[in-house]
Design a protein that fits this description.
alpha+beta; Type 1 dockerin domain; 3 domains; 18 strands
Length: 324
């Protein structure tokens, strides 16, 4: 005989499984948010993409016009993005929607690829910005994208993004800001960003990949201090995958010390300077509070020293030449 607690656990697992495996639909302005007209189908069209589980192509739209939409199961219990996406129809009047379901077999898991939106069912301190789902869509090719943020008071684009193909966009920016030093909100405002349609705030992407989502925070340690020192920051927008990333360039391509996407002689000169100094500099607020400088580019293994171990890493990247 099964214990009552075992039966309860089985019932919960069955409920989760049924919910996770439910039929997804694309709902939006084009169908008055009704349910049964646009059912998504399982797909392996993008087998190299993380959990590209469903897709649907909406047709008969006005080319170049923006439409609000989301993917959801029948009872709305699981949907993405939470704040709805605003997507432009391509030249053929179509929008192809991709849904990435990270609840395999009904077991809640989290996206661990370093991108937003992220959701971890085991950690109640992490906000549920994805509900185990990411919604992406094919690039319409009808407009470009810009990076906006509070380092300049949202007054102008921090960067115009470059298309890397297949719906992926990126930009590398050396950000100068008047924001005070922060490691977290205790010390002051955290740098925040959004991606928007070039020159147009009517279409923007925030933390859950939706149009009305909260801003994307940049919360690496000493983030604002690094920005004040002009460390390159890489912004990535992946439309089909429904994800974004804001990363220190030193994490993306550590040996590219001048952030030009190649590891060459110019980087070797910069590395040699750090190698001669050996120890990364200290930053001191007073005689009692000092910490090792985070922005020490030649310290490729982040041990506060620039030594032979870093040279081995640099030599490997130098031989490869191009950043990944």
């Amino acid at each position: 005989m099964l214990h009552r607690s075992c039966l309860s656990a089985l019932a919960l697992a069955a409920a989760l499984s049924g919910t996770a495996q439910g039929q997804f639909y694309v709902r939006g302005q084009f169908n008055n948010w009704t349910n049964a007209t646009q059912p998504m189908t399982p797909t392996s069209a993008f087998p190299g993409y993380l959990n590209a589980s469903h897709q649907y192509t909406v047709t008969g739209l006005v080319p170049g016009q923006a439409y609000e939409l989301k993917a959801t199961i029948n009872n709305w219990n699981r949907n993405a993005p939470g704040s709805n996406a605003m997507v432009v129809a391509n030249a053929s009047g179509e929008i192809t929607v991709f849904l990435h379901d990270n609840w395999p077999g009904g077991v809640p898991t989290f996206f661990d690829d370093g991108y937003e939106p992220v959701w971890d069912s085991t950690n109640p301190l992490l906000p549920a910005f994805s509900n185990g789902l990411r919604l992406g869509y094919a690039d319409s090719g009808m407009h470009g994208w810009e990076v906006m943020g509070n380092p300049n008071g949202w007054a102008a684009p921090l960067a115009t993004m470059t298309s890397d193909g297949n719906g992926r966009y990126s930009a590398v920016v050396r950000i100068t800001t008047n924001l005070p030093f922060v490691g977290n909100s205790t010390f002051g405002p955290i740098p925040e960003y959004k991606f928007r349609k070039a020159g147009d705030w009517s279409i923007a992407i925030g933390r859950d990949f939706g149009n009305g989502a909260p801003n994307l925070p940049y919360v690496f340690p000493q983030a604002s201090y690094e920005a004040l020192n002009g460390e390159p920051i890489r912004f990535e927008l992946d439309l089909p995958m429904g994800r974004t990333r804001i990363a220190r360039w030193s994490m993306v391509c550590p040996a590219d010390l001048n952030a030009d996407a190649t590891v060459d002689d110019a980087d070797f000169v910069a590395f040699a300077t750090g190698y001669d100094q050996l120890i990364c500099p200290l930053v001191c607020f007073d005689e009692f509070f000092c910490y090792q400088e985070e922005f020490c580019p030649a310290d490729l293994n982040h041990d506060a020293f620039v030594d032979d171990a870093d040279f081995v890493l640099f030599a490997t990247a130098y031989n490869a030449l191009l950043c990944p």
